[in-house]
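Supplementary Data S3. Sequence and structure tokens for construct A.
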Amino acid sequence: MTLYMPPHFHVEDRAALVAFMEANGFATLVSHGAGGLSVSHVPLLVEADGQELRLLGHVARNNEHWRALEGADEVLAIFHGPHAYVSPTWYAQHPSVPTWNYAVVHAHGKARLMDEAGLHDVVTRLSSKYEAGNPKPWRLSDQPPAYVAGMLQNIVGFEIAVERLEGKFKLSQNRPAEIARVIDALEKAGETAIATLMKG
């Protein structure tokens, strides 16, 4: 499976794609197996080490998706960035049609399940990342050992070795004369994240 990719929306800069995944870590995880398609929505950690790229996360043990992960020929993690409707009324050139601007990265790879030590590390790192802005961050290490042990038994950790990245940033590049107008209209509509991305 591949992503429809007109050349002007294609992003190949690996460092930019990794940074995008790190900034937009809540991903859609898709795999296909004997039971058909499995889909989960999970936060993922991104680990880049030279040319190696790994994604780390976990799902509830009651979520049957974990059983399909290791046996899947390929796993796809979709990282979604900002997006917004673009009205043709914003353009100077007519006739024109409505569209949608957005940014996504697709990470394809193979998954494997991890042991309890790896899972403990993933939970610690995920909570540290998303608790960082809190005045009194929640820490796994502060929880009672029996509670931690029980919690870890109810989730399953996994690692995806990324084999292929696809980046598509559809940001009006096909209408360069209109980009400034679209940015202005998006900012006025409160869609500042996608407008900022368009500014590059």
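Construct B, processed identically:
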Amino acid sequence: MNKSVQIVKKLKLIGQPLKIFRKTAFITGMFSSVLEASKFEGASVKSVSGIRGQIKKALHNSEVPAGSVRATFEDKLLGSDTIFLRSWYAVTIPRFYTPITNLLTRNNLNEIVTVKPLSLLKKEKELKINPNVNSLYKPIERDEKVSKPFKINRHIEEQLPFQFKTKSEASKLNIVDKQRVAIIKEPREAKVRYYFIYLFI
């Protein structure tokens, strides 16, 4: 039913070198006429030995067989080489006419119209359409993003002013000490501690 599809099959054309001039050669036996050979100008060819080439122009000279072409190759060919061209050939499909009567109907004016789809019939008769559960929108649930602590490269931090530098470990310990709970000693404990420090000093 799809008209845009084109069916092709593989086509492999084989020819033999007629004359060899270094990296240029005349190829014969690949095409049957000059018109057919001119359609393949610029096509890539390859020899059995693996030398790649390209068809340059179809030969119109009467001294060579009809359908001969001039091609250039990467290296010099041998007289025993076989050149082949890989291509595609479009296959025409026979078309048939099949009238489809089950999708046609007649209205009040006796005009042929297409049958109404199910969605249109339900809309006219005000019937509720049962939607597909998987097609409905669902609430998006995203995990809370936890950002990693910001770290400055040591070499970049050395070039910053002092007020923007991160605090050292000693200053962090002082902050921790200040946040600790104060210990109130008894008078006897304070007196013992005082004499203990006085003796060692």
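The chain is about 20% helix and 25% strand. The longest strand covers residues 7-21.
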